[in-house]
Write a structure and sequence with these properties.
Blueprint (H helix, E strand, L loop, with lengths): L1 E2 L11 E3 L16 E4 L3 H7 L7 E4 L6 E6 L6 E5 L3 E4 L2 E4 L4 H20 L29 H4 L3 E3 L1 H15 L9 E2 L1 E2 L4 H4 L4 H15 L10 E9 L10 E5 L1 H20 L3 H10 L9 E7 L7 E7 L4 H4 L2 E8 L25 H10 L7 H18 L16 E8 H8 L10 H10 L4 E5 H25 L6 H16 L9 H4 L2 E2 L2 E3 L9 E3 L2 E2 L3 H8 L9 E2 L4 E2 L1 H8 L13 H23 L6 H28 L12 H6 L10 H7 L25 H9 L1 E4 L2 E4 L7 H17 L4
Antiparallel strand pairs: 1-11, 1-12, 2-5, 2-9, 3-4, 5-6, 6-10, 7-8, 12-17, 13-18, 14-15, 15-16, 16-17, 19-22, 20-21, 23-24, 25-26
Length: 751
């Protein structure tokens, strides 16, 4: 149920009000709605543009606040959309106030009026909502108190006070241009089991009995109130298909889509001329294009079954008359769906595939909390247990318990359109039921009927193959993971996350084969350019079309060594976020660490490819590459530390000319003459300093070797270099540590 009421008074039995905003109650799910955000003077003042323009944004993208829950058997939440996003001209400018400002404005508009009524002599909080519901009485309630514990509670606001509260809210928010176009939204979900019935008339009757008790329709617009009504086909108990699972046939849904296209073309062509002109203006597309969109969601990477959503575009005749979308989806997802949480959906699970030293460097170089590996392993095991319990074994034969799930077709229609449709389901308008059943029995069903045990084994095998691949590679890996091992384990975990999902087609590294997108350069010293980058995926889309089941394309994986082929491995990394985590603003630090590890992983690859251990000439070139890498990174880190003074409020030690001449990635020659011209002379300008020379007998490192150990983060113990725990993981220190590890692994400890 989705609706846009005109007042809080829509709740006949009152509203359970939440004094403290709770983010978990706010509207965050995509309900396939968008609302217009009008322009106002606040936007013009901030953007400097005078052109008035209205923008449409998805409902779940607009900041909102859940005011409370409607009392009664209809469990509806009531978010308030302040309309703080605006669209001006061709430049989108989204204004979102800070959390503190947001609380102040919400409190100033809603809190005073509600508190006044709650503490008045009307005994609103002590009175029962209705004599028919004595369980809702709150006789022990006290007056509205103070503090966080009190604000975490909820209070019942009676119906007679809701209209004045909404009027007060509108009058107070008028002073804030950020709240222009404030709207109320009422939504309810998960009502299928509450009203499911074999007869649609009985379903509507049960729903109306509770709807009319809880909702005052005087504050509802039937054209702005939408109901999701669906038809579900489930194997009937006692029938031949009792132990079966239904899956929609792709060919049948495609046939339905083509029929819907033809109907939509004819229906929109017969609309009034002014509506046709508005449709052409709202939909910027080619002439003659049908105002209808199709979204396909592959199921289990199977070719012959699919979920689809058919959605008319905004401004089409279907939307104006109340048809928002139609969905056709399989219910096989139910055993893995727990409050929209599916197994293996934790994004951080992929960090189990990263090299432990790489993760340690990232944690030492960034702030904030970091993912615990023990917690990730526990989450992985619990996901496996969830799948196992959903496909549990029965008896001694090891076969899965037969389970049956059907298919569902669902339409979102307005309340006004629903009233028009229900007339045709009245017994006086219905056709002969016996003849209808005979027609249906003579036709082939639009869905497959798969044996339950067969489907359970297929689901088990689909998930288990990725689990086995990840665990096999991880069990054979040593203390340090190589880059090829990381890529295999990462893609196995990512395949687990999308194996049961219908949006796997959006994950290019899994779904596509090979493509060349344009990527913009981001270097400050070079004009921005578009470069073509060759990327590669596993090609599940192609194998699904060719063979009926999605799997990795031949020629990408070396099954003898259980690694991706060398040229494929390089293209898999390019732009597919294999090593990138959700670090936000700290990504620049993580990027530098990733680049260092990538260069050393490349050196490890060369050591095997060019037989560095056996060939003396190749060994000399390989060692020179390691030395050059360390020196280059050391110079870059030193120059990066010198450039930090550019952000100091007290003034920079570095001259602006030197900063522009030598970017962060290209340090200057480290000689005294060049550095003297790059820094301010303290003798001429006392507000700036110049490079210091360490002299005297108070230097921390009395010997050169001690200074080297301090800089590199090592110390000598029993003739061996051991890493210190204290120093920060700078790029050159990581390169030194990884170079020593590589030399020890490739050439031996004696070298």
């Amino acid at each position: 149920i989705c609706s846009f009421p005109t007042s809080f008074a829509v709740a006949k039995l009152g509203i359970q009000w939440y004094p403290q905003p709770h983010a978990i109650f706010n509207h965050k799910d995509d309900v396939h709605f968008s609302i217009e955000i009008p322009d106002n003077g606040f936007t013009r003042a901030n953007c400097g543009l005078q052109k008035s323009y209205s923008s449409r944004r998805p409902l779940h993208h607009v900041p909102n606040y859940c005011f409370g829950r409607i009392q009664g058997r209809i469990h509806c939440n009531g978010p308030v959309f302040p309309g703080s996003n605006t669209h001006v001209g061709t430049i989108k400018y989204y204004y979102q106030p800070s959390l503190q400002q947001y609380k102040i404005r919400v409190y100033s508009s809603t809190y005073p009026k509600v508190r006044k009524i709650a503490q008045s002599n009307s005994r609103a909080r002590q009175e029962g909502i209705s004599t028919e519901y004595p369980a809702d009485l709150n006789m022990d309630a006290d007056v509205l108190g103070q503090g966080r514990r009190t604000n975490a509670l909820s209070y019942v606001l009676q119906h007679r006070h809701l209209s004045p509260i909404w009027e007060e809210v509108q009058s107070r928010t008028a002073a804030f241009p950020q709240f222009a176009g404030i709207k109320l939204y009422m939504g309810a979900k998960n009502l299928k089991l509450a009203y499911m019935n074999a007869d649609i008339n009985q379903t509507i009757h049960d729903w109306r009995n509770q709807w009319d008790v809880a909702i005052d329709q005087a504050f509802l617009d039937p054209f702005a109130t939408y109901i999701d009504i669906g038809r579900q086909y489930t194997p009937r108990i006692g029938s031949a298909a009792e132990t079966s699972v239904f899956l929609w046939r792709r060919c049948c849904l495609k046939y339905l889509w083509r029929g819907r296209q033809g109907w939509s073309r004819r229906y929109n062509a017969t609309s009034p001329p002014e509506q046709q002109r508005s449709l052409k203006n709202s939909v910027q597309s080619k002439p003659g294009l049908i105002p209808l969109r199709l979204a396909e969601y592959p199921k289990l990477t199977l070719r012959d079954t699919v979920d689809i959503t058919i959605k008319p575009t905004d401004g089409s005749r279907e939307v104006r008359e109340g048809l928002i979308y139609s969905q056709f989806y399989n219910l096989i997802k139910i055993p893995f769906d727990a409050a929209k949480q599916y197994p293996f959906q934790n994004r951080h699970l992929e960090k189990m595939a990263l090299d432990p030293s790489y993760l340690a460097d990232c944690e030492r170089s960034t702030r904030g909390s970091h993912t615990n590996q023990a917690s990730l392993k526990l989450a992985y095991r619990l996901s496996k247990l969830r799948v196992r319990s959903s496909l549990a074994s029965s008896g001694t034969d090891g076969n899965s318990i037969p389970f049956n799930y059907g298919v569902r077709a669902e339409d979102r229609v307005s309340l006004a359109l629903l009233e028009r449709v229900l007339v045709h389901f009245h017994p006086s308008h219905s056709t002969d039921q016996s003849s209808r059943c005979q027609v249906l029995e003579s036709e082939e069903s639009p869905f497959f009927a798969v044996n339950s045990r067969t489907m359970a084994r297929f689901l088990h095998g689909t998930i288990n193959k990725y689990c086995f691949l990840f665990e096999h590679i991880k069990s054979e890996a040593v203390a340090r993971y190589s880059l090829p091992e990381t890529i295999v384990m990462t893609l196995a975990l990512r395949s687990l996350r999308f194996s049961m999902s219908g949006i796997i087609a959006q994950e290019s590294v899994l779904w596509r084969d090979r493509w060349k997108p344009n990527q913009k350069t981001t270097r400050l010293d070079v004009p921005q350019q578009n470069i073509e980058v060759e990327r590669e995926g596993l090609g599940l889309c192609k194998t699904s079309k060719d063979y009926g089941l999605g799997w990795w394309l031949p020629g990408k994986f070396d099954w003898d060594n259980w690694r991706f082929k060398s040229e494929v491995c390089d293209r898999l990394i390019a732009g597919n976020n294999i090593l990138r985590g959700d670090y936000g603003r700290q990504w620049k630090v993580i990027r530098d660490i990733r680049d260092v590890h990538a260069r050393l992983w490349q050196a490890q690859k060369w050591a095997k490819q060019y037989s560095v251990r056996q060939l003396q000439g190749n060994r000399r070139v390989w060692l020179e590459y390691l030395h050059s890498t360390v020196i280059e990174l050391f110079q870059c880190d030193v120059w990066h530390a010198a450039r930090k003074s550019l952000d100091w409020k007290s003034g920079s030690d570095l001259m602006e000319e030197a900063a522009s001449r030598y970017p962060a990635t290209e340090p200057p020659p480290y000689c005294y003459d060049v550095l003297q011209r790059s820094f301010y002379d303290r003798r001429r300008n006392i507000t700036h300093t110049r490079p210091y020379l360490l002299t005297g007998n108070k230097v921390r490192s009395p010997h050169v070797w001690d200074l080297v150990c301090d800089l590199l983060g090592f110390e000598v113990r029993d003739g061996h270099l051991e890493q210190r725990d204290g120093p920060q993981s700078l790029s050159y220190r990581i390169a030194v540590r990884r170079s020593i590890e590589l030399i020890s692994d490739v050439l031996g400890h004696a070298e």
